[in-house]
Specification:
The complex is a heterotrimer of chains A (about 350), B (about 525) and C (about 350). Chain A contains 8 helices and 21 strands. Chain A is an alpha+beta fold. In chain A, a hairpin with a 2-residue loop joins strand 4 and strand 5. Chain A starts with a strand and ends with a strand. Chain B has one domain: MetI-like fold (Orthogonal Bundle). The chains are: A alpha+beta (about 350), B mainly alpha (about 525), C alpha/beta (about 350). At the B-C interface, helix 12, helix 15, helix 17, helix 18 and helix 22 of B face helix 1, strand 1, strand 2, helix 3 and helix 4 of C.
Chain lengths: ~350, ~525, ~350
């Protein structure tokens, strides 16, 4: 079932500038977790604000659960949309206790019902014993949980998360990521979150939408985004990639590292770029090899080598961290592509 | 991401009439001023030696600002950043001289230091070698009673300064003294400029102190023409000149502040470690104690002594007759402060970027109009346009709003600036409408700032004399008017002192209430 | 919002408190340029004797004149009490006064009345010199206002600013009797001799009593007020220009007038009758330490050297003549008469 539909939504802040969100169309299914990924200024936060109702679209339509929230026939204010939101700075109310923060959206509940629901939600996020604290007395992770609890309390159909983990340190971030996913899944809440961190998007989301300059470049499962990027922008933004020039021949695409299948049916004689992920590239040391290791980055679980090919083209290769070859080692590089992804030059 | 907002209908509905009440009186004065023949005005202006007078006022305002800075800035640093003995108490006492109107301060020092005063009599001389009368004496008094403006802004900024910046400077190898001059003070520049401007403009437009201490300024000239003659043209022309100069100063400040407007509002900054004064602890305490004596104890003591010369029964009878005037003062000041705050709140909330400063900047002009000038213009303007307000207490309320909307606006803006818009948006996403969200979240969070702004306007309105004299309805005197009636003509006699004491206490009480609330730490955001 | 509701309520109350203050039958609104403390006794007595409520607005003469002018179409005041005839005469010419010949005014000499009855002098004051006995010996005393340009008085003389109408009237008297050119020279002489202009006459009397200045040019009752304040003050009074060739000491009167279109004309007439009547005028004269213009009323301060009408040489100039010249004085000497 479709929970949210954006239909050619456009928002422009400044008439002299390109639109912040440009004819954006997407649908989100009930219970799905969607990540909006993109560099800063790509329009992902604006998209979130358009869904929440803090911005009015210039054109297009926002539909939640079949009801039009914004469109030619009218505009529903944020308080009537039933959309929960978690801000980057959490936006906890400093003058209210944790319990009062969580109960804030339950104002139409009765007193005892509100208390019961608050207790329940606090238990869900593991903060029962902090009910009477004030936000400034909590750690960052705890504040994040309060923000989550507050947004979940009115049982919204949809929760929006704006860079929710960017204020946490690395190990807390992983832990919270897991916990937020668990809670969203357990409560069956649909979530849309905005991030510029692809790892976060990949681990958490069912589908990832990549945004660039207000346009949706690709909306797919994380694996598809990684292995079959639809555009050069997605290929470059998501994961590291090198692009090897190739020529389309009747036998396939001929490149410096061998011939690849012409899976996308390019015309003979065309010049293309073949995408190489570091894990696609291997090498063996060889005194007659025409490649040379020019840089080695130790990364813990893996080691990343940069190899210069005879044409001067550089490619990256990811190897187990136990491998150890000094700079200047002559190597013979090979590319093993399961999916051949090519782009026009 | 910043949200661009246009003017909301409410904002416009509040700002436009207020702007009208600012421009109307000025327009009336221009209209009357045009009646003056140009040549005649130039001739008389020459006789009045206007360039000399303007230069003298500029000198007075500069001296006052420097003196107030010399008093307020070290005091702020000592009470906020050092282990000064009794620093909490002093931090609490320091803004209190605001409750003493400078003209009452001048009266007190006149009793003490003027030829034939207490000190010369005690020393057995006619006059002291340092003359209280003149630019120096006026700057001395004005500085003593206006330094709290600077103190409040600077101590607030010091509390908000991120100590990490100073630690970074220490890390870069600067000595503590160099950190103070290279980092701390430059960071205070916006608040120093803002506070300095308030003091500068105050002394520029002051009437009470300069007239008591015999300094010729544009305001005393205007006042003398207003008091002594039925002439409209010359006082109008001079009023326009005075207002134009003050607006010029304001514009200059906007330019300067525009470039130096780096405020660093950081939510949860850990307080800076206190500087240990070491051997300087007690000398510093003596210095601060001396200031409190000069600005609080001495004036209150002199007023108390003068008032105590009334017998108890006389005092009782006098209190009964003066009671209605206190009530007049109270309710007009309360209404004026509330109205000013409401308008400021509406305008500040609907104010967007870009074009918005024009109308709110216009509101600020009111602060630059001296009370005498505003009173004169407002009386004529109201009578011509809104006769049902003219010569009613409402005219006083209008005058207070026009004169003091600026401090209210600044307080509201400062309070709102500390709130990230996401706070109110969070409330909206939790099902509260705009008004409900404002009421449940924004209002409680900005309340301390609003209360402070309200109190400031209340205090200023309670003290207002010059405009009140001109626009008050017959029989509707305020406390400052009564003090003026008793003191200006007859001198600071016991009844005037008793009234002045009553005024100071009325003003000081809510101030105490505010400060004690603040000390209890009402909100973490303050 | 609660706050707004309370505010509106407050405003409403204020409005309702403000509006009914208008147009009650047994009330009179007095615009007075006189010191309130000195005027109070007679107004209180009037209120008690007649049952007419007096609402008093004290201000400076110029201030009140402007207010009356602004209110021309809808006067809020009934009676104007001025410190000299100048402002009243100005108001008369602008058609802001309503003539009234009080029966009680018959005994007031003609020179103190407007010919058309627009204003009437109720009491008088004399322009004199006061001096500090510790700084000036009797032998040194000047004989005339015009002696004060003598270098021996350099920096020793004080006068009140133009904010006090009597300062303007004083120079108007000189203009009337000695001409414009002589008065210009006189004022220039005073300025070159360091004449100190103070805010008001009260400052003048206090500064002289303290010995800051040896001589003050002021009105006779400031001498009495100073002695009233502090009976031990070393001040003396001197009537200048009394010799055979002297122009005499100028006299000014407090003027009472009814505003054109006054809302309470009956009460206003009753007040003027009362101020000129035997009981009222006696209270007024005593309260103000003034000289009576009506025979039979004792002169306050006679024991301290104050002289009543006819006991000193008075400058031969009528109040109307003075009033005519006051605007000219303002124009010529205004900038000089500011502190």
């Amino acid at each position: 079932m479709e929970l949210l539909t954006l239909d050619r939504v456009t928002k422009r802040y400044d008439p002299d500038q390109p639109p912040a969100v440009d004819a954006l169309t997407l649908t989100v299914e009930q219970g799905e977790i969607l990540a909006l990924l993109g560099p800063s200024g790509c329009g992902k936060t604006t998209t979130l604000r358009l869904i929440a109702g803090f911005e009015v679209p210039d054109s297009g339509r926002v539909v939640i659960r079949g009801a039009t929230m914004a469109g030619p026939e009218g505009w529903i204010p944020p308080e009537a949309r039933g959309v929960g939101i978690i801000f980057q700075d959490y936006a906890l109310f400093p003058h209210l206790t944790v319990a009062e923060n969580v109960g804030f959206g339950l104002h139409h509940f009765g007193r005892s019902a509100r208390q019961e629901r608050t207790r329940q939600i606090l238990a869900l996020v593991g903060l029962e014993s902090f009910a009477l604290r004030y936000p400034h007395e909590l750690s960052g992770g705890q504040q994040q949980r309060v923000a989550l609890a507050r947004a979940l309390a009115p049982a919204p159909a949809l929760i929006l998360l704006d860079e929710p983990f960017s204020n946490l340190d690395a190990d807390l971030r992983a832990q919270m990521r897991e916990e937020v996913e668990r809670i969203l899944r357990n409560t069956g809440t649909t979530g849309i979150f905005v991030t510029h961190d692809q790892e976060e998007a990949f681990t958490l989301a069912d589908r990832v939408g990549v945004l660039n300059e207000g346009r949706l470049e690709q909306l797919d499962a994380p694996e598809t985004i990684y292995h079959h990027p639809a555009t050069l922008f997605v290929a470059e933004f998501v994961g590291a990639a090198d692009f090897l020039p190739g020529l389309v021949t009747p036998y396939g695409i001929v490149t410096e590292l061998g011939v690849f299948a012409n899976t996308e049916a390019w015309k003979i004689g065309e010049k293309v770029k073949v995408m190489l992920r570091p894990d696609d590239v291997t090498f063996v040391p060889s005194s007659v090899g025409d490649g040379m290791i020019i840089r080695r980055d130790f990364r813990g679980p893996e080691t990343l080598y940069c190899i210069r090919l005879p044409s001067g083209q550089r490619v990256h290769s990811s190897q187990a961290s136990s491998s150890l070859y000094p700079n200047g080692t002559r190597v013979r590089a090979e590319a093993h592509l399961i999916h051949v992804v090519t782009f026009p030059v | 991401m910043t949200v661009r907002r246009r003017w909301s209908p409410t904002g416009l509905a509040l700002a436009v009439p207020t702007a009208l009440f600012v421009l109307g009186p000025l327009g009336f004065l221009v209209w009357m001023g045009l009646a003056q023949e140009r040549a005649d005005f130039l001739e008389r202006a020459q006789d009045l030696d206007l360039p000399m007078v303007v230069g003298q006022v500029a000198l007075l305002a500069t001296l006052t600002t420097v003196w107030a800075g010399a008093l307020g800035v070290p005091l702020a640093w000592l009470t906020v950043r050092t282990d000064l003995p009794a620093r909490r108490l002093l931090h609490w006492l320091a803004p209190l001289p605001l409750a003493i109107p400078p003209y009452i301060g001048a009266l007190v020092y006149q009793i003490l230091l003027a030829p034939g005063g207490v000190l010369p009599n005690f020393l057995g001389v006619t006059s002291l070698p340092l003359n209280l009368y003149g630019v120096g004496g006026a700057a001395w008094i004005l500085g003593l009673f206006t330094y709290p403006y600077l103190y409040l802004l600077v101590s607030g900024a010091l509390e908000r300064t991120n100590p990490a910046l100073e630690e970074a400077a220490r890390g870069a190898g600067l000595s503590p003294r160099r950190v103070l001059t290279r980092v701390t003070l430059p960071l205070l520049r916006p608040s120093l400029l803002a506070g300095g401007l308030v003091v500068f403009l105050y002394s520029w437009a002051d009437f009470g102190v300069v007239s008591l201490l015999r300094v010729r300024t544009l305001t005393t000239i205007i006042y003398d023409y207003i008091q002594g003659t039925a002439d409209w043209a010359l006082p109008s022309a001079l009023s326009i000149l005075l207002t134009a100069i003050t607006i010029l100063v304001l514009l200059l400040q906007l330019r300067v502040l525009g470039r130096a407007g780096y405020t660093q509002i950081v939510g949860a900054v850990k307080p800076a470690p206190l500087v240990s004064l070491g051997a300087w602890r007690w000398p510093a305490f003596a210095y601060v104690g001396g200031m409190v004596t000069l600005t609080l104890l001495l004036p209150l003591g002199v007023l108390g002594y003068q008032a105590s010369r009334l017998s108890a029964s006389d005092m009782g009878a006098f209190a009964l007759t003066q009671w209605p005037y206190l009530v007049n003062s109270l309710w007009t000041a309360v209404a004026g402060a509330s109205l000013a705050l409401l308008i400021a709140l509406g305008v500040a909330r609907s104010e967007g970027r870009g074009r918005a400063w024009r109308v709110s900047g216009l509101l600020q002009v009111g602060y630059a109009i001296p009370g005498t000038v505003l009173g004169l213009g407002l009386a004529g303007f109201l009578h011509a346009t809104l006769p049902w307000i003219y010569a009613t207490p409402l005219a006083l309320i209008v005058a207070y709003v026009v004169l003091y909307i600026t401090p209210a606006f600044q307080a509201v803006k400062a309070a709102l600036a500390q709130l990230h818009p996401s706070i109110e948006e969070a409330a909206r996403s939790l099902g509260r409408g705009p008004l409900a969200a404002f009421h449940a979240v924004t209002l409680p969070l900005i309340k301390p700032g609003l209360v402070a702004g309200w109190l400031l306007v209340f205090v200023l309105s309670m003290r207002e004399l010059a405009a009140t004299l001109i626009v008050r309805p017959p029989g509707f005197d305020t406390l400052p008017v009564r003090i003026w009636t008793h003191a200006m003509d007859v001198g600071p006699e016991p009844r005037a002192a008793a009234l002045a004491l009553a005024l100071v206490l009325t003003i000081a009480l809510p101030w105490f209430a505010l400060l004690s609330r603040r000390l209890r730490g009402i909100s973490p955001s303050m | 919002m609660k706050r707004a509701a309370i505010l509106l309520l407050g405003l409403g109350l204020g409005l309702s408190a403000a509006l009914p203050a208008r147009a009650s039958a047994s009330e009179v609104v007095v615009y007075s340029a006189r010191k309130e403390d000195l005027l109070r006794p007679v107004l209180d007595a009037f209120q008690k004797d007649t049952g007419i409520k007096v609402t008093l607005l004290t201000g400076k003469a110029g201030d009140l004149a402007r207010r009356i002018e602004v209110e021309k179409s809808d006067p809020r005041g009934d009676v104007f009490l001025g410190t000299t005839a100048g402002i009243a005469e100005l108001l008369r010419r602008k058609g802001l006064l309503s003539p009234y010949f009080s029966p009680a005014a018959q005994e007031v000499p003609e020179e103190f009345k407007a010919p058309d009855g627009s204003w009437v002098g109720v009491t008088g004051r004399v322009r004199v010199l006061i001096y500090n006995k510790n700084r000036v010996s009797d032998a040194e005393l000047p004989r005339s206002f015009f002696d004060l340009t003598d270098p021996k008085w350099k920096g020793k003389v004080a006068v009140a600013s133009m904010g006090e109408r009597t300062t303007v009237s004083w120079l108007a008297a000189s203009m009337a009797l000695r001409g414009e050119e002589a008065t210009r020279q006189y004022v220039r002489g005073l300025r070159d001799n360091g004449l100190k202009v103070l805010n008001n006459n009260t400052e003048v009397r206090k500064a002289v009593a303290r010995g800051e200045y040896a001589i003050g040019i002021t009105n006779h009752y400031y001498y009495l007020l100073q002695l009233h304040d502090d009976p031990a003050s070393p001040v003396g009074i001197l009537y200048p220009d009394q010799g055979a060739d002297g122009i005499g000491a100028p006299m000014f009167s407090i003027t009472a007038s009814i505003l054109n279109g006054a809302k309470h004309p009956e009460a206003a007439r009753a007040l003027i009758d009362y101020l000129l009547g035997p009981r009222g005028n006696r209270l007024l004269v005593q309260g103000e330490f003034e000289i009576p213009l009506i025979p039979g009323i004792p002169v306050p301060g006679e024991d301290k050297g104050v002289k009543g009408l006819g006991q000193f040489k008075k400058a031969r100039v009528t109040q109307v003549q003075l009033a005519d010249l006051e605007t000219r004085v303002e124009k010529l000497f205004g900038p000089f008469l500011i502190p």
